[in-house]
Amino acid sequence: MDVRHAIGLPTVGQFGDVRTLLGLAVSAERHGWDGVQLWDHLLYHQPGWPVAGPVVAAAAIAAATERVRIILTVAVPRRQVQEVAQDAASIAALSGGRLTLVATLGSMDSEYTEFGLDPDLRARGRALDERLDRLQALWRDWGHPPVPIWCGARWPRKAGLRRAARFDGAMPTFEDQRVANVAPAAFAEAASYVPGLDIALEGFTSGPADAGRLAPYAAAGMTWWIEALGWWRGDLSAARTRIAAGPPAAP
C-alpha cells in the first residue's frame, strides 16, 4: 500500500484551542498532507492546561477542509456509545466520508477516577469491545455507512492489536517514541499482528527530504505516517513551520 501522511495534533496546552487546531488543519491541507489526527483528553498531566474538545475540533475541520482525512482518537470506554455513534456519523457525513475513528482505552486513569468511572484496564477493555460492537450495530440500525475503525495498542502488549485485527486498522504506540523514532524491528513485530490492514505510526521528520527514513516502516506494513507535533518539539510557531515544510514524501 502507498503511505499517506498526517499531522498529529495534541488537544492540550498550547494546542488546546479549537481555532488553533482548525488553523493547523487547514494549513496541513494547503501544504499537501493527507490527514489530521486529533488526541482525546478531558484532563492532562499539567494542571491548568487548556483542553479542547476533539469532537468539536473534528467537526470544524470537516466543515473547513475538502481533502484531508480526519483521524479522530476516541477513548471509547469513558463515553456513551450512542453519542460516539451519532457524533461519528455526523462528522463523517459533514466531511463527505473523510472520518476514521481510533478507538482507545485512554491513557490517563484520572480521566476515569475523577468522573466516577472504573479505571481498571481489564474493565476498560471489556467496555471497549462491547461498545465497538454496539457502535457498528447502531450505524446499521440508523442506516449510516460504517466509519473506519482503527484500534489503539500499547506495544509490547498484544490485546490492542488482536482487537484491531477485527476492524480496519491499528495505531500502536511505543515506549519513548517522543524521544526517538521507533526502531523499525519493533514496529515490524507489532505490524505482523495486523497484516493487510491500515497501520499508523507516530514519529518525527524535518520535511520531504526525510522520505527515505520511512522506507523500513513502509516495508513492514505502515500505511499512515503521523507527524507528531506538540510542545516537546517546540511551540506553535514550530508546528506551523513543520506543517508548511510538507510531508516526508518524494515530490
UniProtKB/TrEMBL annotation:
Transmembrane segments: none
Annotated InterPro entries: Diverse_substr_monoxygenases, Luciferase-like_dom, Luciferase-like_sf
Record flagged with keyword tRNA-binding: no
Domain of life, source organism: Bacteria
Domain Luciferase-like positions: 16-191
Pfam families with a match to the protein in the record: Bac_luciferase
UniProt keyword annotations, A-Z: Flavoprotein, FMN, Monooxygenase, Oxidoreductase
Name by which UniProt lists this protein: Luciferase-like domain-containing protein
